[in-house]
Amino acid sequence: MINQFTYDDSLIEKEKMIKDLFKYDIEKIETIVKCDNYFNYRHKVIATFGYDKSRKVISGIYEHGTHNLINLNDCMIQSKVANSIIKDITLLANKYRVPIYNEDKKTGILRHVLVRVSEYTDEVLVSLVLGNSKFPSRKNFVKQVVKKHPEITTVTSTFNNRKTSVVLGDKVDVIYGPGFIYDSLNDYKFKISTTSFYQVNPKQTEKLYRLAIDNANLKQDDILLDTYAGIGTIGMIASEKVKKVISVELNRESFNNAITSVRLNKINNIELINQDASKYIVNAANNKEKIDVVIMDPTRNGSTIEFMNSLVDLQPRVIVYVSCDPKTQSRDLKYIKNVYKIKKIIPVDLFPYTKHIENIVILEK
């Protein structure tokens, strides 16, 4: 009989990882926040294209640590809508004999596809990642995709011929529709484009953000600094609880989406800044700016030494560190442990049936 690895088994593994990383504050670790729906939760999906041995186009994901493409017709953690769209794009690529990009030879056209599905509006964004900017039948190909899937509200393309694990290119072209979709979190509406950062599991993200904000001990006259802000989600949701929010994000497209979302939600107490988070906080500390609470949600790589040192100099009352990689989070917190103490550690399972977990650490001076 085959032993089945259950959802509860995966939570035990993740809980052990958090306890190993934060064993010096193990009593501060709260019970992992479960995901209510642990199948088909992933609303942002990226598929890679390749050939099988018979030169038939396939799509899927790379085997861990390799460039071996696993043919994946139906992934149980991905949105059913995304699964269906990717499957049909693969069939159309075979039908129209679209050349698949080879990064070693730098030949071919179609490399990846990105699908974003809005949980609340049901809008769908599809982006074709091309290894060659010349795709003669691109509009006709997209027309066929949309004909099969009228739920698609916009299609873009982006060019990337670099030998890299980075999927998207720098420039995005709109082929069909407005080039963006909308989604909603905690009753706030957000604009999402091809390259915007937006959490992949919207319903669980609502729990994550609410826990981060509710445990920040915000006061009505506080100035809140939201760093690594993406499209400004956390800062906007928290804006009703504070005097002012300063939202800092480097990615230009995410920043532009944040501007639109601020207008959509009629928020008038938020300042959006398009700058590197480390540079901003270093300057803020040097200028002795008054910041009461800092929320930080960096990428998987974590933050920088400069950021963490300046965080201490800035002396906020509370720091909320949200992380998708508790290892880098634990590393970063060592730089401030002499000044800030951990009040709570709240693991949130944003990525069921994977090794990843989102983790919130609340710190006080």
Secondary structure topology:
Elements lengths: L6 H15 L22 E8 L5 E6 L6 E3 L8 H16 L14 E8 L6 E7 L7 H11 L3 E8 L12 E5 L3 E6 L2 E6 L8 H13 L8 E5 L5 H6 L5 E6 L2 H13 L5 E5 L2 H10 L6 E4 L8 H10 L3 E6 L2 H8 L7 E8 L9 E7 L1
Parallel strand pairs: 5-6, 10-11, 10-13, 11-12, 13-14
Antiparallel strand pairs: 1-2, 1-4, 2-3, 4-5, 6-7, 8-9, 14-16, 15-16
Helix pairs in contact: 2-3, 7-8
Structural class: alpha/beta
Poorly predicted runs are: none
Mean pLDDT: 94
Radius of gyration: 22 Å
Q: What's the SSE pattern? A: HEEEHEEHEEEEHEHEHEHEHEHEE
Helicity range: 25-40%
State the helix count.
9
Report the portion of residues in β strands.
25-35%
The shape, in one word, is globular
Strand order of the largest sheet: 3-2-1-4-5-6-7
Number of strands: 16
Written overview of the protein:
With 365 residues, the protein is α/β, with parallel strands linked by helices. The chain is built from 9 helices and 16 strands. Strands 3-2-1-4-5-6-7 form a 7-stranded mixed β-sheet, covered by helices on one side. Strands 12-11-10-13-14-16-15 form a 7-stranded mixed β-sheet, with helices on both faces. Strands 8-9 form a two-stranded antiparallel ribbon. Helix 2 (80-95) crosses helix 3 and helix 7 (277-286) packs parallel to helix 8. The model has no long low-confidence stretch (mean pLDDT 94).
Which terms would index this structure?
365 residues, alpha/beta, seven-stranded mixed beta sheet, 9 helices
Short structural description:
The protein is an alpha/beta fold and 365 residues long. Helices cover 28% and strands 27% of the residues.
